[in-house]
Write a structure and sequence with these properties.
CATH superfamily of the largest domain: Alanine racemase
Oligomer: single chain
Helix content: 25-40%
Shape: globular
CATH architecture of the largest domain: Alpha-Beta Barrel
Number of domains: 2
Bound molecules: pyridoxal-5'-phosphate
Radius of gyration: 23 Å
């Protein structure tokens, strides 16, 4: 894995921290040169808790949860918001989702176990995954989860058999691949025809499988689901997905005389990782999807269904930042300047995986302009181990606290122990207080499982 070549046309933007706009968590502010989030000094926090450190602005998370629910319910009362827990999950996060009235999307036994430990209401849990193991299915059904989103015909038979054995009727959705190409990175585009997820619509396969689901014992088909991808800016893609899905519901009604009453349009709303990104707002997303569902239900003669969406990234990414301590500076003449931090691909794989871009600042120089372009690399044994490539930043010195914004989604949950790196702690900050909600891993945690 190699690093993207330096872009020598990129110039420092001279912005100070507070000029990073939508990339900042809600409560970010600068006091006497230090970055504060949730009223907590990030420089002090980094020194007290150690780095690398994940920090979440709790007010930001809570505000978005409230906003998502209100944006949908105010214009479509029969709407629910599922938090896609793959974006970030610990017990505190599950607790917050429960308090703010969200449902929870879990994709496997581990996420389900976390929800149970946190006391999350099981009837509000939706289970996803393209290869849920029989054991995971049994755990989910016996826990009484609200919906299982069935991803294949093989799984349909498994769910039916397990539910029968447990003496219950399990409400299910079928995940449909709507053939919509979302404008996003190919690795996080999931609704197009060539996808491992869901029932393909090619050759009417999904449509024929509805009949199987209707005939299967011990399951009740209540709805359909799609998820077209992630970090999507063009809301037209969601409108198109809604059209395909509502038409599918109409076809089912006409052909099988059966009314599907729930429609889950997945997640995928993009966020501003950099100052160049122009994502839509949660309100616009709600307006476009609701309008699309109303329009197409009218057009195809379908009763308005219960409508669900499954945001992950747009609920938590901006709320989260990662703090590091700067350990090494290297300048390669006419190539680039590297600054190495005490984490990297082990706590943030997105740059190596998707060529992601981030905004960063030096938290102890937060009111200074970003006068340099650097590549922020990690401490791991891979050349491609970078956190931010060609990033504008304040003049760096050893020991500085580097803050990378927008790391709240798909960073902690994709973290690894590469090079024996213990995974960072997760701290929630609010009203001047910092709470460790997941402690830092220890060496004992890393090797205590060895026999
Ligand atoms: C089925 C499903 N729902 C929801 C999401 C959340 O997507 P996002 O974080 O882009 O909102 C994902 C992410 O991959 C997903 O696979």
């Amino acid at each position: 894995m190699s690093l993207r070549a330096a872009d020598h046309s990129k110039k420092p933007d001279n912005r100070t921290t507070m000029e990073l706009g939508a990339c900042l968590p809600l409560t970010a502010e600068v006091r006497e040169g230090d970055l504060y989030i949730g009223g907590v000094d990030m420089v002090k926090l980094a020194r007290e808790e150690g780095t690398a450190l994940y920090v979440y602005d709790q007010e930001d998370v809570e505000t978005r949860m409230r906003l998502y629910r209100e944006s949908f319910r105010s214009i479509y009362p029969h709407a629910d918001v599922l938090y896609a827990s793959k974006a970030f999950l610990n017990k505190e996060m599950a607790r917050l989702a429960a308090v703010y009235g969200l449902c929870l999307d879990v994709s496997g036994g581990g996420e389900l176990a976390c929800a149970r430990m946190a006391g999350f209401p099981m009837e509000r849990v939706f289970v996803h995954g393209n290869n849920k193991t029989p054991q995971e299915l049994e755990e989910a059904i016996s826990a009484g989860v609200g919906r299982i989103v069935v991803d294949s015909r093989i799984e349909l038979a498994r769910v039916s058999e397990i539910a029968g054995r447990l003496g219950v009727t399990q409400p299910i959705y079928l995940r449909i691949t709507p053939g919509v190409e979302a404008d996003t990175h190919e690795y996080i585009r999931t609704g197009c025809e060539d996808s491992k997820f869901g029932f393909t619509m090619l050759e009417d396969f999904a449509f024929r499988c509805v009949k199987d689901a209707l005939e299967a014992p011990n399951v009740q088909l209540v709805g359909i689901h799609c998820h077209i991808g992630s970090q999507i800016f063009a809301l037209d893609s969601f409108r198109e997905a809604a059209r395909v899905m509502v038409k599918f519901m109409a076809d089912v009604k006409r052909e099988y005389g059966y009314e599907l009453t729930e429609l889950d349009l997945g997640g995928g709303l993009g966020i501003a990782y950099t100052t160049h990104d122009r994502p839509s707002t949660i309100n616009e997303f709600a307006r476009v999807t609701v309008e699309a569902v109303r329009d197409f239900c009218g057009e195809y003669g379908v009763e308005l269904p219960r409508l669900l969406v499954e945001p992950g990234r747009s609920l938590v990414a901006t709320a989260g930042v990662t703090l590091y301590t700067l350990g090494i500076i290297k300048t390669l003449p006419n190539i680039r300047k590297y600054i190495a931090v005490d984490g990297g691909m082990s706590d943030n794989i997105r740059t190596a995986l998707y060529d992601a871009d981030y905004e960063a600042v030096i938290a102890n120089k937060a009111d200074e302009p970003r006068t340099e372009i650097v590549t922020i690399v990690g401490k791991h044994c891979e050349s491609g181990d970078a956190v931010a490539i060609d990033a504008a930043i304040q003049h760096p010195d050893l020991g500085d606290v580097v803050c990378v914004f927008g790391t709240g989604a798909y960073c902690p949950t994709m973290a690894s122990n590469y090079n024996g790196q213990p995974r960072p702690a997760v701290v929630f900050v609010k009203d001047g207080k910092a709470r460790v909600t997941t402690r830092r891993e220890t060496y004992e945690d890393l090797y205590g499982r060895d026999c």
